[in-house]
Backbone:
């Protein structure tokens, strides 16, 4: 079809993750339909049997945790003009990095016992730890709203920077009661963009979008697990 | 049958996660039939050790993007069992409501988005956006309505926010429940259209004997609570699961395989309906009649129809819980129960959309987690899935490689495997 040739060819891939971010995209439901006028989804294993290897934009969900996946993501990078890290597992790499505090042999042993050596696992890395990433969409899970915003930026060839102000800004703007007096809340040092989803509902922020640039993390040291990368994981 | 043939389907599409089908026929016999789980595990059982209980239950829902509510509930129940916490019936009702929402949304995702394209002759439901837009719109509307149920209760469907050990972080809001009821009313008509749609799917036939396991409860169609039971046997306490369920590591599969006292078995909608048929809502039993879902689990393809029956059941159940909550004199203040950690072990079992889900934690006196074991529905089904691959390959020995690969894929898909979950 002539028209389809003008559409951006889009593909979705996933690595170590729960696939919840792709489902958040699917959950856009009818709001996804206008986007389909501008893009042609040529590969999306979770939702479609169509599998084509010629694509312009690749969305990659999940962290890189095996050598095989390092090769897979490199191959995707080679094929795609634009690569998007979808979700916090792909960006920082969120909960997956919790295993990095142990030697890999020990986590393998805990889960698989004596058969552990037969499986491959490396410390969890963000997609950007292996290949160059053009756009990042953070969140556990991402919001459909931000996904559409990034799609718009890609289709109009604009840059997109994930919000850099702390969650507290969005929290105060929505007139919440601060939860910090009940619980250790990571809102002050975590990137916004979620609309203060957790504090708004009475739960402490667990830092799923990673630290704001220049965050003073010392006060949180004892309860939080950090990754060496800038702006990387915080977790309560 | 071709005396020698080999079928390999890499990264099977329209399932959650990464799995490969591998079949080898040698000398006219099926020599090998495997569904290899090639999903990279995330090692939850290793990294949850050393984390405080509040964090354990928040993080554990991240095992799955589809059944996050079930994982959260199983985690909470295991933690409450370890600490000796008992919650009020109101909180239990809210949890049941959230789980009913998830059961519907997960089943609708599978029936309409993952399985239906096999029967509609398209690659994906998104392909329906042109000519059969009404069908796509129906699927999207229903899915949204189901999400709405769990989202109203726990703030977000994937991953729940307000649902915690001991209760909820926020008191109940009557207005939101009223809103939900109104929105559900609007979708009533879609439910019948959905059952009709599933009625139009021509499920391939297959017949095999299989053991089934699920939770069962004397007063309700078990999902949130119950004792676990193999078909034809007396129910047993889920906290003794280790006496019945044994997991074995089967490389290269990153998911373990389970057996019930040495026997392969299946969990999920077919198993639940087989045991608890009489407790389905009357309307769901009518749907079961319409779709030909009987109290038997002999055809794995019928899992899709069984899930459709459960959508009707949990829709009605959500409605009933909502009515009950709205008619009761809801306390204005939060009913959450105080949680004080103590050393101990706790088991939490629920029926996740794909079947029996068990979480077991061991905590120290400060509520820091020391050991974790997760028994995942899809991992319990793997051994049976491989048996069924073998049987189906024998049944279809006259078919072409292409047709055989297609049917094997459809059969695995009908199980609705949740592969990220199974490897966790």
Residues:
């Amino acid at each position: 079809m002539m028209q389809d040739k003008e559409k951006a060819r889009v593909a979705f891939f996933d690595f170590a993750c729960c696939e919840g971010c792709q489902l958040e995209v699917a959950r856009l439901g009818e709001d996804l339909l206008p986007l389909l006028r501008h893009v042609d989804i040529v590969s999306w294993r979770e939702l479609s049997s169509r599998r084509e290897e010629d694509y312009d934009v690749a969305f990659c969900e999940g962290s890189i945790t095996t050598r095989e996946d390092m090769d897979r993501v490199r191959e995707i990078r080679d094929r795609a003009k634009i690569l998007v890290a979808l979700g916090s597992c792909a960006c920082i790499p969120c909960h997956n990095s919790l295993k990095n505090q142990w030697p890999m042999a020990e986590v393998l042993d805990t889960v698989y016992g004596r058969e552990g050596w037969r499986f491959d696992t490396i410390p969890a890395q963000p997609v950007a730890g292996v290949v160059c990433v053009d756009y990042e969409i953070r969140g556990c899970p991402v919001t459909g709203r931000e996904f559409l915003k990034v799609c718009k930026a890609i289709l109009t060839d604009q840059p997109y920077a994930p919000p850099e102000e702390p969650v507290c800004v969005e929290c105060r703007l929505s007139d919440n009661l601060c939860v910090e007096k009940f619980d250790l809340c990571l809102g002050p040092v975590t990137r916004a963009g979620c609309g203060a989803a957790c504090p708004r509902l009475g739960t402490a922020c667990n830092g799923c979008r990673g630290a704001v640039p220049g965050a003073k993390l010392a006060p949180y040291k004892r309860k939080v697990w950090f990754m060496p990368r800038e702006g990387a994981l915080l977790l309560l | 049958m071709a005396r020698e043939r080999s079928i390999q389907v890499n990264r099977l599409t329209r399932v959650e996660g990464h799995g490969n089908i591998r079949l080898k026929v040698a000398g006219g016999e099926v020599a090998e039939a495997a569904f290899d789980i090639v999903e990279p595990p995330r090692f939850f059982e290793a990294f949850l050790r050393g984390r405080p209980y509040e964090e354990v239950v928040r993080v554990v829902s991240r095992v799955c993007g589809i059944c996050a509510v079930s994982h959260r509930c199983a985690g909470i129940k295991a933690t409450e069992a370890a600490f000796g916490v008992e919650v009020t019936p109101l909180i239990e009702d809210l949890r049941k409501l959230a789980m009913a929402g998830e059961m519907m949304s997960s089943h609708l995702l599978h029936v309409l988005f993952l399985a239906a394209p096999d029967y509609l002759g398209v690659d994906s439901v998104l392909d329906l956006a042109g000519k059969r837009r009404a069908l796509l719109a129906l699927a999207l509307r229903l899915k949204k309505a189901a999400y709405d149920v769990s989202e109203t209760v726990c703030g977000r469907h994937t991953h729940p926010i307000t649902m915690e050990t001991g209760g909820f972080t926020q008191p109940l809001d009557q207005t939101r429940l009223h809103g939900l009821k109104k929105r559900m009313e609007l979708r009533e008509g879609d439910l019948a259209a959905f059952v009709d749609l599933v009625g139009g799917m021509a499920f391939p036939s297959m017949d095999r004997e299989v053991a089934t396991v699920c939770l069962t409860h004397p007063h309700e169609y078990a999902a949130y609570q119950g004792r676990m039971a193999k078909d034809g046997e007396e129910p047993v306490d889920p906290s003794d699961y280790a006496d019945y369920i044994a997991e074995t590591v089967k490389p290269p599969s990153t998911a373990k395989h389970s057996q019930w006292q040495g026997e392969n078995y299946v969990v999920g909608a077919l198993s639940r309906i087989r045991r608890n048929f009489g407790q389905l809502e009357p309307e769901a039993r009518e749907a079961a009649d319409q779709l030909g879902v009987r109290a038997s689990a002999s055809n794995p393809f019928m899992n899709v129809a069984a899930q459709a029956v459960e959508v009707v059941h949990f829709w009605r159940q959500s409605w009933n819980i909502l009515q009950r909550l709205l008619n009761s004199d809801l306390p204005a203040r939060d009913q959450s129960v105080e949680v004080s950690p103590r050393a101990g072990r706790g088991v939490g079992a629920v029926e996740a959309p794909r079947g029996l889900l068990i979480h077991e934690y061991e905590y120290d006196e400060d509520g820091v987690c020391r050991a974790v074991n997760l028994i995942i529905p899809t991992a319990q089904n793997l051994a049976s899935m491989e048996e069924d691959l073998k049987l189906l390959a024998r049944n279809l020995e006259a078919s072409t490689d292409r047709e055989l690969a297609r049917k094997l894929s459809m059969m695995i898909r009908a199980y609705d495997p949740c592969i990220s979950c199974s490897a966790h």
